[in-house]
């Protein structure tokens, strides 16, 4: 980074004002949190938006909302500040335990990675895994993270890419939506509101096998994240597709029932991606432990 580019960066107080306004939902609340005036927050956000070259906040009578572009910008700012903070912390710790950053979606962290962290970190030699959760794709090439778990068709063309496991999807529904006519009846399942994740690839694969003439309904819903789908199903909003490989022996959670006999192979998969590096480099050691757990079905 050149001296001229450093001069173009916004002041740190503008970054903090933007993040606090996003967190609290209003300039007034952000001002209280940061101990400044409403006008100061407004000026600092203006500086931030001028630097970004576009509006980040939508001003409303009772607060502010962050637009889609603003969410991406603020997520990167928050990540950058966290990286600066971790630099100070790592200098203080002076620990000999190697740290490996892994970028995953919130759902993958919740259902698969975090329950297995102790096995990845402690055996046989110690590692410290820094879990970065975000819906966007972290930049592996430019060093934003050490490992990435991506969900899709694969062949992204970045680093060494390995499929983690074969995945099977099956419908799950809340106990209060379960009726006698739904068990063993794919047509009855398809008539309920279906809860989709992103591009609906899972439900399209399911319908191709069980309800060939199925079409998406107005009552169906779409969510950006797998975990949101399961929570929506748990609250009786419709039928979600449960990914067995993501949960292993864990239970679904209170109130959800698996509709057995309607499994379908997942057309998408989770892939572990890493940079080319020596086999004994900490990211590669962590990657091998992750893949070993996948192979064991742990």
UniProtKB/TrEMBL annotation:
It comes from Rhodoferax aquaticus. Coiled coil: none annotated. This is LysR family transcriptional regulator. Residues 21-67 form the HTH lysR-type domain. Signal peptide: none annotated. The lineage of its organism: Bacteria, Pseudomonadati, Pseudomonadota, Betaproteobacteria, Burkholderiales. InterPro entries: LysR-type_TF_proteobact-type, LysR_HTH_N, LysR_subst-bd, WH-like_DNA-bd_sf, WH_DNA-bd_sf. It comes from the Bacteria. One of its GO terms (molecular function) is sequence-specific DNA binding.
